[in-house]
Write a structure and sequence with these properties.
Two copies of one chain form a homodimer.
Chain A lengths: L10 H20 L7 H8 L3 H8 L2 H13 L11 H16 L2 H12 L5 H23 L7 H18 L8 H10 L3
Helix pairs in contact in A: 1-2, 2-3, 4-6, 4-7, 5-7, 5-9, 8-9
The structure holds a DNA duplex.
Chain lengths: 186, 186
DNA sequence: ACCACTGAAGCAAATATTTTGCGTTAAGAT
DNA sequence: ATCTTAACGCAAAATATTTGCTTCAGTGGT
């Protein structure tokens, strides 16, 4: 019984994943999402369709995967010196990214493309991680901090609800207002 | 220039819609949702696939349409005599329906299947209508009532977030607790 | 550095699906 | 009762998906 072979993460596999992701992102800028197809993406990526089908299963899961990359935080949350401003800044930035047509589509793709709970789970992990970083930092300063769940319930959830369900443009300062409601008057 | 012809709502069209919806609901109880296809649904409904494609566009939109029926309230919200209990009862009932695997799938279908904002919009209309009925009734009694948006932000949104993004089972009393946070201590 | 092992990609044939043109049926308006 | 045309059925054509088999190239062992 030989050694167990590892999953392949580098080299050609990595290049294919990169090429396919790039192809999706590029096509999404020049065509309507409704007429994206796997063969189209594969052609643009210089890959056979069957490769895409075997790795991602179907277009929905591929879109969810690409959407997740889009949601991955690019760095630790900004440090403005106090909890209220840190949370408000993070919320406003999140809204800025997610309330655009592109952002809304990203959110929908994440929700739509998870047979199991993988993509939504990873999405939660990203945002929870960012919020936790903010809370931990504030606790280190000696501030009173709310529970992570309270922030999810009363700041993130309302923003996500509006992004997913309501297409009206959002009032500026909405994120900051939610933080104000959570933390109470200054 | 002749009279504009109306959309057909009754007779054969209605029967086809009914048959197709029934077929989807039935198949969903005996097969995994991943291997539902339009031809399969059409066969069960006794209809040609092209009929389904022409009326609904694709499987996702059909599933969203069926999911919407599932979310349509079956009556006015229960009247327990005061705002707090009315909201709490409504929230708990909503959770009961939507936190099951079936309920989660329904929510996901509504979000996934809307190219425009039709299905999410209708979904909002249903829930907003129910909440508004509760608020209006309470106002008629002379109670202080929160704004509709406040209920959406701090009661419905957190519940929807958990249904869509977190697969853990929900703590009993979660809906009532959210209402408590919104309305303040009794 | 080379080799053996095998996961992942390519290719192409077999299936399944979606789209489309056209004839037919029946809902709704006059 | 009659007319108009939206919506359905059918079948052919176009696309997309699955699958068996072969080839290619990371990864770990020597």
């Amino acid at each position: 019984m030989g050694t167990r072979q590892a999953v392949r993460t580098g080299g050609r596999s990595a290049r294919v994943q990169q090429a396919v992701h790039d192809a999706v992102r590029h096509l999404l800028t020049e065509r309507d999402r409704a007429d994206l197809t796997v063969p189209l993406v594969a052609a643009r990526a210089g890959v056979t369709p069957s490769t895409v089908y075997r790795r991602w299963g179907d277009l929905q899961e591929l879109l969810a995967d690409v959407a997740l990359q889009h949601m991955r935080p690019d760095g630790p949350p900004a440090d403005l010196g106090n909890l209220r401003d840190d949370l408000a800044a993070w919320a406003e930035e999140w809204l800025e990214e997610m309330s655009s047509p592109t952002g809304r589509a990203v959110a929908r793709d994440v929700v739509a493309g998870d047979g199991d709970g993988r993509s939504t789970g990873q999405c939660c992990a990203y945002t929870s991680g960012q919020i936790e970083a903010i809370l931990t930092r504030a606790a280190g300063r000696g501030e009173d901090v709310p529970a992570l769940d309270a922030v999810l319930d009363h700041v993130l959830a309302p923003m996500m609800y509006r992004v997913l369900f309501i297409s009206d443009s959002l009032a500026p300062g909405y994120g900051r207002a939610l933080v104000g409601t959570l933390l109470g008057p200054r």
